[in-house]
């Protein structure tokens, strides 16, 4: 049976920020904690959100000064960690907050989702991870969240999941419909001027999402249509958006594609994410912050070859539909097309370029087999399959 669930209020367009006060009122938020990172603050994006919410015509909060004086947590790392979730949760409690506004990329939004759990549920956080059987333990008591993305890639603003690196080093997913943001304010003006490399990396993240959700075998025709349309938009506009940071139409199309890829998440993802999740948590050069979207771009060709080699009627049909959406020839090598796009965008095309070597393969494979995305790939992968995909991606 298909379960189709779309409830987030989504505002998409260059005037979306004006809806912050009205959405706070609708969600019952009178004292929000703003969750962001220092780069977003330095770029002036939080200030722009605050200014937009105070303009004439924006529906006022019960106290018009609520947003301007809202407490802030701006220590979100490039990959959310349990330590930072707990630090933000402490800030939330100390400031007497009753809701969250996440302003940033997927890391800030995911960290805010972690806070939404932590402030309303007893610890430890690990018990709420999906692979620990924790989804049913996450209740409606979660703090309400409004998400404002500043990149076009993760789609976390409309997704029910969050990825967090736990204290034990595992990079795990947390999934519950109670984590869905109450509202997503997708204003592409916040992505204008984003550097080319970050635009490309987040854009390839959106493309990976659209492809993996479309290939997932779950029966969900609306999600299929949303994912396929998102793929067409992203593939057609990612190079324009990356080349010109002020191309307003390209930025709007990429913001939409990012949101669409995540709307289709409820079908499930696949081996790309089974691999990129643990890869993002392994120490490389003394750090565990490899960019998720870049990892997805690098491993996507190998996963596409693995899935297409299943040679089923369904797989052939879906690959044919993706080629049409991407305006590729009927006989195009889809994996090669993705590799070539990644190269044109000047992103790494191999894991070795990111500092990954074969010494981490065993740990990554163990993580991939346990990952929540593993079982929704259209073709089940075993340890040897994952090893071949990693070797091909090196």
UniProtKB/TrEMBL annotation:
A GO molecular-function annotation: 1,3-propanediol dehydrogenase activity
Domain named Alcohol dehydrogenase iron-type/glycerol dehydrogenase GldA: residues: 8-188
The name this protein carries in UniProt is 1,3-propanediol dehydrogenase
User: In this protein, which residues make up the domain named Fe-containing alcohol dehydrogenase-like C-terminal?
Assistant: 199-392
SUPFAM superfamilies, alphabetically? Dehydroquinate synthase-like
| EC number(s) stated in the UniProt entry for this protein | 1.1.1.202
Family matches, as InterPro entries: ADH_Fe/GldA, ADH_Fe_C, ADH_Fe_CS, Alcohol_dehydrogenase_Fe
Indicate the family of this protein: Belongs to the iron-containing alcohol dehydrogenase family.
Superkingdom of source: Bacteria
Q: What class of enzyme is it?
A: oxidoreductase
